[in-house]
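Appendix B: complex inputs.
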Amino acid sequence: MSASEAQPSADGRPRVIVVGGGFAGLTAVKALRDSAARILLIDRRNHHVFQPLLYQVATALLPSGDVGAPIREVLRHQPNTVVAMAEATGVDPERRHLVAWHPDRGEGPIPYDYLVLATGVEQSYFGHDEFAPFAPGLKSLEDAQAVRSKLLRAYETAETEEDPSKHRDLLTVVLVGAGPTGVELAAAIASMARVTLKSNFRRIDPSATRIILLDNGPRILAGFAETLSRTAHERLTKLGVEVRTHAHVDDVDEQGVVVAGERIASRTVLWTAGVRPSPAGQWLKADTDRAGRVAVGPDLSVPRSPEVFVVGDTAHLEQDGKSLPGVAQVAMQQGRYVGRLIANRLAGRPAPPPFRYSDRGNMAVIGRGFAILESGKVRLSGFPAWAAWASIHLAYLPQARNRPEVLIRWLRSYVTGELDSRVILGGLHPPYEKRPEAAAAKASTAAPTGRQG
Amino acid sequence: MSASEAQPSADGRPRVIVVGGGFAGLTAVKALRDSAARILLIDRRNHHVFQPLLYQVATALLPSGDVGAPIREVLRHQPNTVVAMAEATGVDPERRHLVAWHPDRGEGPIPYDYLVLATGVEQSYFGHDEFAPFAPGLKSLEDAQAVRSKLLRAYETAETEEDPSKHRDLLTVVLVGAGPTGVELAAAIASMARVTLKSNFRRIDPSATRIILLDNGPRILAGFAETLSRTAHERLTKLGVEVRTHAHVDDVDEQGVVVAGERIASRTVLWTAGVRPSPAGQWLKADTDRAGRVAVGPDLSVPRSPEVFVVGDTAHLEQDGKSLPGVAQVAMQQGRYVGRLIANRLAGRPAPPPFRYSDRGNMAVIGRGFAILESGKVRLSGFPAWAAWASIHLAYLPQARNRPEVLIRWLRSYVTGELDSRVILGGLHPPYEKRPEAAAAKASTAAPTGRQG
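Resulting structure:
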């Protein structure tokens, strides 16, 4: 990236750089559509990931293309925006430039008049990065494909194993973390094992798959009302998922997990536990909360840098004494707010009142045709909640034209249990200790940097 | 794999091992459905690849799940068949066992009464394996995803490049080999560049993409009648593809290709030229043709091993003085023939007459809604040929339930040019010389072995 990357054209229009094409960044850019700004949106991927459906890629229900939308396709009718696939690596707030890296052009500064950082979060292993090679997380489409292959591969390995006593360990899936992702994933794996894979195997019985969902805390889905969390717990139990709360994971290795001293043998451990924010706080040398999220002001700007905004999961803001949660709704509302604020400022209109999050509710799917939903005082569970979930998620799909296909896949899976994306990519895996990444993982379990490629 | 892998059950039913879940192997297994055999189907992947549509995965039209069907799902209602994801590495025809390798269980023999080798072909660089890292082929779904990412990545790189003089090299695509795959791919890339990517970019004009299709021979699509080959050539020219025949490729590197002394700068070189057979001939120490395909007898068995059959692309058989081509039709007819032959033998029925290939015709798609077709004396081109192509390929899709979705995607792409699988996996690539595989490629451009993982 060269220094003039986002140079204003001869017309001298103000330059807005938005970093990150997630819910927050994309919404901010859209809100600037009719503004006088020249916008540069930078993301290290070419696609927006519709996170709420990522678990459906991991469980073979949806293809990647329904959940990942090319950012430049989403913004094709917004001519004031250039989309660049590159990686932000730093900010110089005094000189007002972002530092970005591109494999062909190396690292370089890009000047801005306004900067919106929507750099999100990545998987966190709570200081145990050595767990990562054995327990993939679920943050990207690559992750989702890896989880899908890992899940399906275990059945393939078991089927080639004649000794039935060895089948049990191979058919044990452990999920660490019972937030929405862990719960949705556990339930979807249960459906896959009990319904989809039926009559596919001769030596093993996939319906005997043991699925264990672990959580540190006293109950699953801590973000939901207690009654719904209980409903979800019962539903999971009915689907054959063993739920264990107050379960602290001491160790994860190739053989499985150690929970409160007890070893659970498993070839398929999935990490759905924690996140850590992007290094935006370090770039800005700004005040952060304990997790590292940037403490923003009431207009989501960074103290002492009124032209820099941080939105979405990587921002910390309190409302009514509580920290706003890292969910899509907050990200979208914050992105829209900042987009409008900048547009107003450029147009000489008055600034909007301080940001205020309006919570529309919370949902989670628990297996085929079952969801829980809370919105205001409403608590709903079962099929009606699933129908509401389905309509809302269809409406928010990043590419509207995919709706018919996604709906067909959902309904078919609901009725027949069929899952069509069951391709294992990468063929036969050598055992862990013989893989190139094993050596690499041993060499560097170093602290994460901003560049994850 | 242990020695007893395919041990007959106490009932002593004859053991048939089929290696390879492509067109030939899968058809052979299906033809044995009602036989008394116990069948073991071994493949190093979990899915059958519907090769004729692979180029549509590479050009973002179809998701992998529509083109790759889990083998065990295809055979779920065939209880006499065990499917194992493992890799064949050798045969001992005297002791009648196959040698197979599994990452968890290592290498081991598996006894058979009948063996069907349907191990296919892989990409060949005609003795220039050093071209491989710069010019991916198109033989697997992994290849298709890699080609798709390579194609789309070039546009992303160009868009971050300010200097317009550098855009030209980035937007040059070279395809080496003008057989059906090269032609179909070149035309699909042309549609993608001229229609789909429109209004997606601000600095570059994707419709200016230069697409060059090279072939060694005097004309493209040498397998077709000369009139159709000429029609195809004209159509490609109309789509803006530069076709060059008598074009010998001397070199391929990171900067592009050298053709008859002339260097063409290109960041996107694709290899659609040649194939080489699997090492089945070496395993059997059998007579092969110059390419290495096993010379089989009139019943497709291997001389001196009447219980071993070789079918599909890795077999060599002449009919009416001409060698049978390596196409899906031959593979399917041979698979069916051998399946029936074994079933007859097991049932004590007379052997069928010698194998005879019945050529139903030949087709290739050249861009949206245009195909060429020959069958007997019929020669067809344009939309009618495309409609015939579409019906036949829908009918042969490995998973019938995907038909509505595939049809919708075809029609939508025909009408609007939309392509929905435009996700680049793997994020930002470091430059070639910094990638781990670059070092690996340098270290070993050794001859291929049976184990490609």
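Chain A touches chain B through 71 residues (CB under 8 Å).
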